[in-house]
Q: What sequence folds into this?
């Protein structure tokens, strides 16, 4: 056990809790690079001169040169609004109406896509950020799904909606998809 008068030695070999020597005034504080490199003023030997800097000393560019140009195009974000309607027409069909924003349709007709025997799927080409992509609409086991894909593995946007009426009242395999005034109308016939 050590006595109180001997401070313990740390791994660096210096004493722990050692107090630095104290000097009068502010001489013990770091003066910084610019203050320590400047010469003393000639009027008073006890004061340090404050350096005066101009923009040319630091080779700074003006704010106008550094600022990035503003883009006129807003970032295109894909958004959708979905509405489900019972008794859409005289036959009492179920309709799902989707309004998309953030891309343009390249074609006006949907193409039926081969898929599992218990589901229906359609696709349509779209232009998103001036690149060709595909919008896929699928119905499977009561779920209505839509996805926007650039490639097989790159999904840009997706959403799944569970519609219980597709399991009991309506036939999911009777799905048809049409495009009218940039609205997608998907209909299902009653069983």
A:
């Amino acid at each position: 056990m050590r006595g109180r008068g001997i401070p313990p030695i740390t791994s660096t070999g210096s004493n722990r809790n050692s107090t630095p020597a104290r000097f009068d005034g502010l001489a013990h504080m770091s003066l910084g690079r610019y203050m320590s490199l400047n010469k003393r003023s000639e009027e008073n030997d006890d004061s340090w001169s404050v350096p005066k800097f101009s923009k040319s000393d630091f080779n700074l560019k003006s704010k106008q040169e550094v600022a990035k140009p503003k883009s006129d195009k807003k970032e295109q974000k894909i958004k959708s609004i979905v509405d489900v309607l019972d008794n859409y027409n005289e036959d009492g069909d179920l309709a799902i109406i989707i309004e998309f924003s953030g891309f343009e349709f390249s074609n006006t007709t949907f193409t039926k896509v081969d898929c599992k025997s218990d589901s229906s799927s359609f696709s349509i080409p779209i232009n998103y950020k001036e690149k060709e992509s595909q919008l896929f609409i699928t119905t499977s086991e009561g779920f209505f799904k839509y996805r926007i894909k650039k490639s097989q593995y790159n999904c840009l946007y997706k959403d799944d909606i569970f519609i219980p009426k597709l399991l009991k009242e309506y036939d999911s395999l009777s799905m048809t998809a049409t495009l009218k005034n940039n609205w997608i109308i998907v209909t299902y016939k009653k069983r």
User: Anything to note?
Assistant: The beta strands are 79-85, 94-101, 104-105, 111-112, 119-128, 131-140, 143-149, 155-162, 176-180, 183-188.
